[in-house]
Design a protein that fits this description.
Blueprint: H1 2-13, E1 19-21, E2 27-29, E3 51-56, E4 63-68, E5 80-84, H2 89-99, H3 105-135, H4 145-178, H5 190-203, H6 219-237, H7 248-310
Amino acid sequence: MASDEIIWQIINQQFCSFKLSTDKKQTFCRNEYNVTGLCNRQSCPLANSRYATIRRAPNKDTLYLYMKTIERAHMPSKLWERIKLPNNYQQALEKIDDKLIYWPKFLVHKCKQRLTRLTQVNIRMRRIAAEEERMGEKLVPKMAPKIRRREEARERKAEAAAKLEKTIERELVERLRSGAYGDQPLNVSESIWKRVLNAMEKEGEGKRDKDMDPGIESEEEADEEAEDESEDDLEKEVEYVSDIEESDEELEDIEDWLDDDEESEDSEDSDEETDRKAGDKRKRGRAVKMNQKRLKQKQAERPKIAEELTW
């Protein structure tokens, strides 16, 4: 028992991984064996060597009574004794009283409360499953009151905004039709302005400019456009073909002939380019030879000119 006090002092004053504090000065416990879900000395499953709780089997409706005693504290693998409780609520209560006859009344009372709550949860789950099987569809859970009120408030605001937009649009259309903004109003949606002009044209109150505004087409214009479209369709449907049908072999011969012509033209062009380059080289050689001859003649004439000047 002394070890229980030491464990509780460490958990309460220092640190515990299962402790969950809230803003309302209430501390909860996330340990799956806690019988109340609160973090206090009586409900702590770690700081009590003699403890009992009720747990539900995973994926089953079966409930089990878990008991921990100090005699098994040295065997962690066998620390908890699990006893299956009957499905009958009254029989389960009697079994709890029988197994916890010498236990503290606090634990007996909390185990019975937990048994009652888990039994209600099982009944509700079976009812929902039967309803889904009967209707052939999954039921949507009810929203919390706070969320439901919030969604209703959003719907009311959206409806009010939609009504306000329609009222503003109706008033704007009336002002445009009455001419309150003149012929060319500013800051008005183009779609609304076109709607007003079309309505005025239908009623005969306004006239449109054929060059600037298409407006509402008359029946004659619509008929003319329909005739033009039908003529275009007929032209597309009619095709002109030759009476001489060319076979595939003839087409291949023509393609080969065209390819041969292109190759011959390419070869002629390449021959002309080579001849032109060779002629350029010959001209360059002749020019170099002529320049050398002229230099030699000038060098030979220089001493003759010098002798004449001395005389």
